Amino acid sequence: MAWVLVVIAGLFEVVWAYCMKISEGFTKLTPSILTIVFMIASFALLAHVMKTLPLGTAYTVWTGIGAVGSFLVGIFVLGEPVTAMRMLAAVLIISGLIVMKLSSS
User: Fold this and answer.
1) Residues 6+ apart with CB under 8 A from 85
2) What stretches pass through the bilayer (predicted)?
3) What percent of the chain lies above the pLDDT cut of 90?
4) How far is CA 23 from its chain centroid?
5) Mean of the per-residue pLDDT values for the chain?
């Protein structure tokens, strides 16, 4: 169950990062509120998961999901550029997440 929750927490991180982007520096009310709500939910789930999973594993997976998810939202929703170096970076992050998962008991 901890793994499911850390994935959800990571997805919430993607949502709050996107909402922060569209809040335009917290000048738009609805995205600003959504940023705070999803940020709190993401941190709360991460804190709960850390009762079970090791700190290094939970935090690494959470940030990795957030990083790669935000990268994908940037490409598919915001039209950010896709370059070979950016793709390589995403592949390396995903590889690290897989190794972290495999190394956890």
Assistant:
1) none
2) 33-50, 57-78, 84-102
3) 89
4) 18
5) 95
